[in-house]
Fold:
Amino acid sequence: MSAMIALCQKEWRISLDTPQGYVVSIAFLLASGFFFGSNLFLSGQAEMRGWFAVLPMLFIFFIPAMTMRLLADELHDGTYELLATMPTRTIDIVLGKYLSLLGHITFLLALTLLYPLTLMLLGNVDMGVVMASYLAAWLLAASFSAICLYASSVTSHAMIAYIVGLILLLVIFLISQLSPTLTPYLQDVVAMIGPMNHYHQMLRGMVSLSDFMLFVCLTVCFLALSWFELERRRWR
Amino acid sequence: MIKAESLCRQYGNQFAVQNLSFEVKRGEVMGLLGPNGAGKSTTMKMLTCFLPPSSGDAMIDGLSLSQSIQVRRLVGYLPEHAPSYHDLDVEAYLQFTGKMHGLSQATRQDKIAEMSRACGLEQVMFRRIEELSKGYRQRVGLAASMLHNPQCLILDEPTTGLDPNQIIEIRHLIRHLGEHKTVLLSSHILPEVEAVCDRMMIIDKGELQALGTSAELSKQAQAGVRLHTQIQGNGSKVLARLKAELPELEVVTESALERGGLQCELYHPDVACALAEKLFHAAVAETSVLLEIRQEQASLEDVFRELTGEKS
Structure:
């Protein structure tokens, strides 16, 4: 437990204290600000639906960048050997890394809370919908992070980890986009397990247990896969 | 303290370590010698619970490697090239290592102060590891590996890439640590192992070739006796008399001395043949004088080459 916290603190420190951490954060905030501003000023509407619709695209490009070095660099620099020979379990390593990542993303999303606060000055905002949408965005980001953490565990090169993460997320995104062209049975399957479908459902302001559970399951699955991948390396 | 029992590790079909058994006593400094790719690092990775052995087991202070978490608490490990987090400063890195080992705040402060003093890190405590020289990084790694006060230290090539001064410093440090802890270190620099270690073992192609103190190993490698001698007087008669007594004697080199006499190198395959004494008696019988009589010791380098060289 203490090892998990120590690891989380170390990653948190690196993600705020080093260029590779804050450049990604600043770029994310600039991009998200741009999409929020363009909706607000170009269409002249005091609402956030447009911003929440493009947010997954931002996640798809930025979350792999935040995650890529988390495990891949440890494997590349040989520091994983140090971690694995300390009295820690592999699952603590995975969870410590994941929690720091989740903290980083929560921090960035919390900064964007300025947008609804600004909108409240300009007009009537349905805070219920906005909060449900934030929850949806946070859950989506949490499951995307787990997927990208897995991508970072399969390789010792951060760049490859980025590409693998990006491809996995794009596949998830595109399957939902392409679902109308699929057979009715497959459409049902995609509607049931596609994270994007559940995300859009939650954007309507409706939070159901099934949406919530899907994101949790996805996260747990990919954390387990990362754990499995790290364990497997020792047996190869 | 460390007891390996027929450790094996396979990568695919290839054996990296095969049937390796040895014992390191408490408070001993043991050197692990071998050419590149002999299985030194793999052995160390198994002893530190990083790689599980394919078969066999090792006991560390009576604990089997399968009790991995307890074993890791007892062992301090410095991997090859001393990896560390380049983005952190030395202090933050040592704090992190202490936390990972579950040390309390107060112990952590004490140990960090103690180890930074022992490893000479006080001047660079707040520099990023990235900016440090190779020697300092090595010392940071060493300090981190000892932070939790392990009973047993496993160091994989602790002095590679250091300049001669730093090598001597690290050597002193290891020697000093060896008084209180059990140390297993690997190296392919022979004089270093000779200077630092109480005993050493040589492995090649994953198998143990020899184990003992450097004197024992020298003796083991030396098949037969080799004598250098200078005989003043009738050298050839002395040799002839000696040959009559020891038919297997071989005169390896022979040259005449300027002031009359003979300089030669003698070899006899049997160590117990008392070659030196017989030579003396032969010289007395021929009323010649022995100016020099010197038995050649096989150096550790010879031992190493003999045991690990390509066997023809």
Q: What stands out?
A: Chain B has a mean pLDDT of 86. The domain at 223-296 of chain B is CATH 3.30.70.240 (Alpha-Beta Plaits). Chain B touches chain A at residues 11, 45, 48-52, 69-70, 72-73, 75, 77, 79-81, 83-88, 92, 96-97, 99-102, 144 (CB under 8 Å).
